[in-house]
Amino acid sequence: METSTKTNITIEAIIKASVEKVWQNWTSTNGITKWNTASQEWHTTKAEHELKPGGKFNYRMEAKDGSSGFDFSGTFDVVKPNEYLESTIEDGRKVRTTLTRKGNDTHLSQTFEAEDTHSADFQREGWQNVLNNFRNYVETLKDHVPLHYEITINAPIQKVYDTMIDKDQYTVWTDPFCPGSYFEGSWEKGSKILFIGTDEQGNKGGMVAEVAENIPGKFISLEYMGILKGDEEITTGNEAEDWKGGFENYTFTEKDGSTVVAIDVAGSKELQDFFSATWPLALNKLKEISEQ
Questions:
Q1: CATH number for the segment(s) 145-290
Q2: In terms of Cα–Cα distance, which of 251, 276, 272, 249 is closest to 153?
Q3: Could you give the maximum distance between any two Cα atoms of the chain, in Å?
Q4: Statement: the pTM of the whole predicted model exceeds 0.70
Q5: Which of 155, 199, 223, 240 is surrounded by the most beta carbons within 10 Å?
């Protein structure tokens, strides 16, 4: 009986950005719609995925003239944040994406099994074009400073998680950032959420974000989209660029019956001092109300 051997194709790029920044934008469903295309005639109109082993992904690809489209879908097999992804496309072909730190840069390589319809050169060129688009997208994003904070709370994970995203309790624990701040929207994955406050002059403002991931009791990831001025959401232009590509990740871990809450933030350098002064205070507030 004859057996066929699949052809493996590898593409690669050096990206002038940290591994953390590359991973965040490679796995952001919002970002995928901005860079995932092999030519100017096509675009990704919708991206959905569950970034975990066994999680499904589906990226809708369409011609800009509306003449055709298809779903690029499959399953994640292995997810190692900031290191590599292994997945199986719906037709059974395997893909492995690997990130390697190279000083301040990142080497991203991707090996995929070729399909039989098009030539290997054609497929290599198309996948390389997508990777080049990704590299250009990431390198034009404003640099953000990675910050980390954590606290141990003497309460069960579920209570801490529920307290953190409860509408009334949110106003309490975020008081150090802006007294009376609140949110509008949903914490469900893929949802837009607004974080709102008023300045000393009473002007309404805040941040526009997307819930990139929410695994209840385990992990929340917020991706910054832009800012709020009054009732206007600004997600393009210079003001929004200061925020785009930034994120907040909340990780909840059980330890000896308590909960460790770890916060990883990537924001603009201008916000570094503000976050370093306010996040520890906010986490102490969260600890206080969660332990009641």
A1: 3.30.530.20
A2: 251
A3: 79
A4: no
A5: 223
